[in-house]
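Re: export button greyed out
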Amino acid sequence: MTAPRNDLVRRPGEPADLVIRGARLLDPRSDLDAVRDLVVRGGQIAEFAEAGKAPKVPEAEVVEAEGLLALPAFVDPHVHLRTPGDEHEEDLETGTRAAAAGGYGAIVAMANTKPAVDSAAVLGSLRERAERDASIPVGFVANVTRGMAGEELTEMAELRDAGAVGFSDDGLPIASARVLRRALQYQLLAGGVIALHEEDPELSGQGVMHEGEVSAVLGLAGIPAVSESTAIARDCSLALYEGARVHVQHLSARASVEEITRAKQAGVQVTCEATPHHLTLTDEEVRSLDARFKMNPPLRTEDDRQALIDGLRDGTIDCVATDHAPHSLEEKEVPFEQAAMGVTGLETAFAALHTDLVIPGTIGLELLAERMTSGGEPFGIAPPTIAAGAAANVTLIDPELEWVVGEEGYESRSENSCFAGRTLTGRVLMTVAGGQVAFRQRSFAMGVAG
Amino acid sequence: MKHLLGIQGLRRGEVERILDRAESFAEVGKRDIKKVPTLRGRTIVNLFYESSTRTLSSFELAAKRLSADVVSVKSAGSSVDKGESLKDTVSTLSAYDPAAIVIRSPHAGAADLVSRWTDASVINAGDGKHEHPTQALLDVYTLRRQIGELDGKRIWIVGDVLHSRVARSCLLAFKLMGAKVTLAGPPTLIPRGVEALGCEIAHDLDGLGDADVVYALRMQRERMSESFVPSLREYAVRYQIDSRRLGPRQLLMHPGPINRGVELAPEVIDSPQSLIATQVESGLVVRMAIIYELLAGTDRERPDRGPAPAEPPTIGQPA
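Workaround output, generated via the alternate export path:
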């Protein structure tokens, strides 16, 4: 076994000294679910104490957290930070701030930038910028193929040495089975999971939404569910044959969940993710022809949504990923067919899933916490835990606070949220990421111990 | 009614009011002076992002018959060609304070978007493959004049439903007026899930004899290269409406332009059952009626001019 790598980068900062008083501490990995005081010293979780009995820690900030919920900070395996190339939509500073505002303590950034992250030079410069601009730890994936053209492999071994946490051409599928097979073989040398955007471009064609009743009514070209599920079936077969490890991104359809179930039973080393929007919305939203509901893969039917929820519950789906995809206003203020695909998601992920799945009792809070913190594992990022001695990765949430999405603007540079205007219940008030306080709601008062 | 964005969402009563008004405009059309002064001094903008002969000319003439000032902007050669966004074009044109904007766009939902960016009434003259409500209304008008109310009538829409905004709007309109609709065509050209709109689906014309009305759709030649049909020849063999398939009591409609010898055999186009020329004629009066309804209709709220005057006291009626 080689030593665990840490390829995450972030801006250096002050290690946190905190006394978080009276929060409900919930960690799905350590069976912790109790109201306690939590002491963070020098960026590490130092000790727990009976509620109200925490020792006075000189210089520590005291956070009055009665009635609040403290979870391990979330990990998002799928974020578009748009840097380099589209900094007007997002950059490392705004993107990580948005992530911290959503309770994230670490994120994995995709590589479909301009230029794409297909060389150690681009990766290196990105990591340098992250050391200056990122308020939470960021892992960068590199491309599988040069220029994301799907033809020639990148120098995966060198990219891995340069700090790539994995590989992905996300945004585009790897259409050629031959090219993907070579990449899977090469993984034996380079290491690093290959994260796959699963779609058959031939079947998706010019599609702009889910193919079904709604697309028939609207006269919009559809993207059939089989475009995704047949690609998953192909790639899982290849991964099994080559003994390679793959991570399937943004599952959207029942048929896809079924393919993953079969693959896992057959022993394929596969993990997968689903997004908050696919878990809470359906193609009915598209009836409005509002481009805020345009993304790829598209919102599908209620039956697909139910299959995703079941998959999340039974572990077929390993983690929640936002696929946070910022777009400028002018790319969305156009007719639906012309609009760019993608929605933001970092700032609303927990609140949307808490409101639509946890409060109605569809899934438990503990399960949601588990699935929102395990997203780094395929990329070698250990899940955060609330335990003495661990680095402080804690998100503090008011589970009852209602807020209107977008009413106070966004931390992200872009506004293309599919939850804009919705009243959600549960809001992140503070995030400690990798031992540093990365985010604090403006309205969240605090005091310093004397 | 402020806008006409689609048949979806219209009530039967609203459709009937428009059709009744079109009847009265048809009377005006028989006079020597075909113009009415209703919209004198008001401006109507036709914003066409797709080429169109019959729809654009029909809208222009309809506006002129109502004495409106008309400006038609076509995409070729305009600022639209220079990459201006729809939103910017609409705000530019809105500076003329138009009473109505008539828009045709290759993209679904364009009319709806325009209605959010302007104070003018917006008329959808075709948005992508989504809706073409004025066509559907003129078709209902044409049929109503021919055979009366559509309740219980059986209408077959035959051909390339997948790529047809006319099919969608007509299906909705015919159903709204009480007809039973069947969509017929090759499985590749019938959109998956369309039966959710409450229609029958047929992949052959064996049952066509039951239809009171046969509505043929345009079959575009490029569909072959996209593998929707193997050849126009095979399409014609299976789906062409010819004198063998069209019974003497059945009516024939087509939104135009026709591909002679593809979806329709020449002999049925000019047959007495064909309403194709009448459809074009109806287009003018129905579009006049639509414009009138939106800009001068009695039930229209006019926030710009204060509340509508109170109803005059009725005379000679018991209180």
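Residues 7 and 173 of chain B are 6 Å apart (CA to CA). The button fix ships in the next patch.
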